[in-house]
Every structure is written in structure tokens, then in C-alpha cells.
Specification:
9-stranded mixed β-sheet; disordered N terminus; binds adenosine-5'-diphosphate; about 650 residues; alpha+beta; binds magnesium ion
Amino acid sequence: MLEFRKNNEYNEITMGQIKILDQNMVNMIAAGEVIERPASVVKELMENSLDAGATRITVAVEDGGRKLITVTDNGCGMDAEDLARAFESHTTSKITRYSDLYGISTLGFRGEALASIGSVAQVRAVSRIPDSAEANCIEIDCGNKGSISPCSADFGTTIEIRDIFYKLPARRKFLKSANTEMSHIIEQFTRIALGCYFAKEPCGTAILAVSSLHGLEDRATNDGTQTGPQARAAANRNLDLTLIHNNRELYRLSGKENLRRRVSELFPMLSREVYEDFLEAESDERGLHIFTLLGKPGVSKTSNKFQYIFLNGRFIRDKFISHAIKEAYRGLLEPDRFPVIFLFIQMPYEDYDVNVHPTKIEVRFYNANLIYSQVLAALREKLLSTQLDVQAKLPAAANLPVKDNAPPESHRSQNIADAIAEFLKIHGPVKTVQQYGPVTKRPFSAIYPGSKQVSEIAAASPEAGLGEEKFLQIHDSFIVAQTDDGFVIIDQHALHERIIYEHLHKRISTGKLESQRLLIPESFELTEGQTNVIDENAELFDKLGIELVPFGPRAVAIQAFPGLLANVAPVDFVQDLIDLLDRRDTGLDADRLLEEVLNMAACKAAIKAGQKLSDSEIKQLLIDREHIESASRCPHGRPTTIKFSISDLERQFKRT
Ligand code: ADP
Ligand code: MG
């Protein structure tokens, strides 16, 4: 048997080489998992303050937390005995018996954080409980604990962490610049500052008792009532939070402010959107309460960094929930964009396990499907029932440039506004349609060839209710149409794509597309691989109403083609379809594949940019727009419509 490598030699092992690691070593190893960087310290200490029922937490850091982190709270504090115990490993007041593990209501419970922190830094902790005249203080230097001494301090707890990892050069070396470490701290602070919304509040002033996990003594509940952070009352947190860096106050958040206000303080770049472009969705079913503040598709980002999911106040990452969010925005966002969303889930603590990850950022739901479907339904319903046309952004009238040295961006917006006004002055009012009447005649062959179905959309509700409308087509690509409170600019291709997509979707979900026989079958050559693709997807071709028959050894002929796609060249379409099926992501399920195919079909069949439309065709587009779902986005998620309000224009022209 070989011993582990020592001085580059292998020695014969003698029995009894396994040692029990000393406690400090155990703590340092645990710290490796829990305390990665200063931000982890901030997270653990803030969570402890929350569990202690604090309503005020101040975090002050120096040099990105590399030099000093101080967290002060007005929570329930610790008495001398608890303060001494709190820094030993596996000591906690938050659980007492095994069954508690299956209903964790506090943020902490592992009893590891303070011991870990104490093993990798210089720590000074001061704490005072409500019925004590004085506070107590303890100092720990990388695991060497001093004795408790009395001192004077306010009620609550202050913990100072100096020179993190100073005895561990290998880990200290991995710390990044103060700015980078600070951005991690801000992120942790942000998560806590948001998580406290809709979270239940611990009882606050209850007296804590730290029990050792090894002994599982139950001092906290020996009078039969639940005290300490374990007992939580149902109420929203009212938490004042401050973050200070190098003596500069970065955030001062009042516990009284509502969620939108808090979001705007934490994310200044969203401060306008959060009031104008965010929706609220809520659902409450089978013990699962969901509240979301969700950005309209227009406020999307390039990463999912702005997706904040909280479970009973705890920030979590969960791939099922992220997937549900993505699904909810499907077709409303371009594939590489991510929505901004704050999602708060409340559910019984017994319905999930938080003991699956050292920092508890992941949890295991016992009924993940329920959460998935409820999140998806709540968001999707909200998004589909909301008018999502993009509102044109004009510069605030007060800042309108009057001098030449105005910023170029404002100049551009002003020029656009001027150009539109000028255009309307010269060309308008253009076409006036007295009330779109019932659409009884056949739709317009140029845009809806052979499509009986499309006219049904409009015919379903003939009193389209558009009132007196004025519109014109510009650059053969966009339609400008007057609305009750302004006007809209519509991308004719994008809108028509959405209309056709919805229509194809509706047809195919209740059967298959109606096909038309081609007078002369069109044939084309195939490779061996392409023949296989056709065989493997025979069902899909049938659903689409495409009939293919062999035509010689290496060719097929298209005999029938869907009527809805009558203005698409059949051979081009079928060849592209085969290509799409051939290179498709193998993980794609049948529904998603069908959706991609319909996307492609809609794109090919839709009127193009640069195509001149007759008045009646434009009218039909406008009517259909009123009757389809998600009309404000094309199937790829790009906007179809930009709204301009008359009040904005009046402000721009200084009429108000
Ligand atoms: P955990 O939070 O998992 O219980 P910690 O090591 O973070 O473990 O803390 C150990 C114990 O110290 C906690 O259970 C709690 O009783 C006590 N404690 C820690 N921080 C505070 C605080 N700010 N106020 C009151 N008690 C605290
Ligand atoms: Mg803790």
C-alpha cells in the first residue's frame, strides 16, 4: 500500500495514518465552501441580522471589504454565553431537532458561517440583548478565540471582519480589485434588500439560545413556546438598510418604501422603466403564492442577471423557474434577450429542501412542476393580456436642445420628431377611412393569397371599433396610422408575420393545414441524408399539408402545398424546411420544432419590407392587428409597433 505523496517519495503506509482534523482546520475547510470572498461575509452577516429580527442593518466596508467589513443590526442580540458559542462550529439557534431540517424558516441553519469567518480573519463581535444593561464583546483571530468581556454598546449586534484571508495568502491572492469585490458586495446587498419584500418576519426581540448541533440541546424551546429566529410571524419586513464604502454612503434604503421605489434605488438605470414599463402579476393557488414585478419585453437585457427569484425571502437560482420565465416571454422577446423580472414565491417551508447547497442558493422543490406551471401561467397571462406596443421615447420637453451645443442624441430625436411633423404637414391627412366596417368581402390576394382563414379573424368581430382612422404607408415598409391618443408606426412585415404565425398556429393546433394541389407538381433533387430527413418527419409534412412523392431515384415532387402559404415558392420552402429539420437542435421537442417551422413559414409568407400595399390591404392589416394575440411583437420577439402619444408631441412642440 502506498502512502500519499510526501517529499516526492512513496512510503509504505503504516496503520493509523488517518487523523481527526483539529477544529480550526475543519472550520477553514468549511470556510472554503461558504466564504469565497468579502461578499460572502456580507451575505452571511446580513442574513444573521435578518434572522435575529433586525429592522435596521448597516453595512460599512473598506477597500471592497478586503480591509474591513462591519455589519451592525438592531436585532435580538446574544448574551455572553451565546456570543462565545456562536463562533464555534456547528452551533446554531435555528434548528434543534432533525425534523426541523424539513421546514427551515430562517435564512441560516447550518451553524457554520460565524465559525468559518472566525477561522479566516480577525473578528470582533459586540452584542447586547434587550434586557441587559451592558453589551459583551469577543475577539477571534483566525480561529484563536479570546475571552468574553463586557463593554458598552446599543441593543443588537455589531460584527467587524478585518483583513480577510490574511493568513491564507493563496486565497487572499484570488481576491480581485476593490471595485470588483465591491460590485459583488452590492449584489449581495441588493438580494437582501429585495428579498425582504413578501418575506415573513422573524419575531425579532426573542431571546436566542445557541445550541450545539452535536448535542442538539433544546434551550430555545424549553418553555414550550417557539422563540428566537425559528418563530416567524407573517408580515412584510420593514427594513432600513444602509451600505457604506470607504466612508461614502452608497445606499440608504428606507423600510417604508414600496417595491418599485426600492428597485429604482437599487437599479438607477431602471428608475424610469420601473414605473412605466413594469407590470405586476400575482397568483395564489394550492398554497403557492406568487408575486412578480416584470418588465415589459421592451426592457429586456442581454443576460439573465436581472432575474431575481426569491423563495420565502431567500434569493435562489433555479433552472426550472428560469425556464418558465423564458417560456412566458416566448415570442415576445428576441431569442438572445432576457426579461427583467423580480419574482417572489411564498410557499410552505416543508415543500422544499434548502439543505442541498452550502450557500443555499439552490433548493430542491418537492413539486417542481406545480411551481413551473404556476409561474408560467401567471406571467404569460399577464403578458398576453397587456398592450405591449413599444412607446416611442422622446426626450423630455424641458431638456429640448435649443442651442447648437446640445448633445447629438437629443438632436437626433428632435430631428425625428420634426421630420414626422413635417411629413404629416405635407402629406397628411392622407387616407380617411370612415369606420372600418364588417369585413365581408374576401381578403386581399396580394397579402393573403388563398386564405379564407385569415378573413375569419376579422370577421369574428366585425365591429372592429377603430373609429375614424387615418393611415399611410411610408417607404413601402411602414404604416403610420392615427390612433385615439396619437399615432403608431407599424413594421408591415413584422406585423404580418405575427398575423400569419398566429393563424397557422391556430389551424395546426386543431388539425392540419389545408392543402391545395399544385397544377403542375414541382420536383427537385435530394441527397441521401435529405431523403432520410423527409422520412423521419413524414408526420410533420403531413400536418403542414405538404405532399411529397418520389420522382426518380434521387428526387421528389411536391404535389400539394398549404393554401395559407400560396404566395411562397413551394420548392424553396420545402428545401429550407428540410435544411431546418436537418440541422435542428436534437434536444428540441416536437412543439418547439413545430414552432420554428411555423416561424419560418410566417416569415416567408408575410409581405416584405419594400412592398407597396393598397389601401384595402393596409386596412386589413390594421383590422387583423386588433384581433390577434401578441400583435405588438413578431414571432421572433421584435416589436411590430411603436406608439407616439399626442401628448408627447404637444410637449415636444411646446404646445403644453
Ligand atoms: P446559522 O445562522 O446557520 O445559525 P451562524 O454561524 O451564522 O449560523 O450563526 C450562529 C448563531 O449565532 C446563530 O444561529 C444565531 O443564534 C447567532 N447569531 C449570529 N449572528 C447574530 C446576530 N446578528 N444577532 C443575533 N444572533 C446572531
Ligand atoms: Mg448564519
